[in-house]
Design goal:
Helices cover 13% and strands 25% of the residues. The chain starts with 11 loop residues before the first helix and ends in a 15-residue tail after the last strand. It has a three-stranded mixed sheet, with helices on one face. It is built from one helix and three strands; from the N terminus they run αβββ.
Amino acid sequence: MEKDYKYKAATFIDMRKMLEKADLDPGTVTEAHDATVEAGHVISSDPAADAELAPGSAVDYVLSLGPTPVAVPDIVDVP
């Protein structure tokens, strides 16, 4: 799925409200790390924004976990 810029600023709750207002159902919600999308915000949806769907259709979306964490190296006893 490509990033869906229409929903990019939407939070989990915002997305639920938008889907409800459009008479659509939230489908599967997954999470993924993304360096450019703030944690808790929508990265993409499937189908993408502006797709025409029958009322009650499900829309899957991916929420950002924020940037991928980086492990801190062990520096104990390193000169």
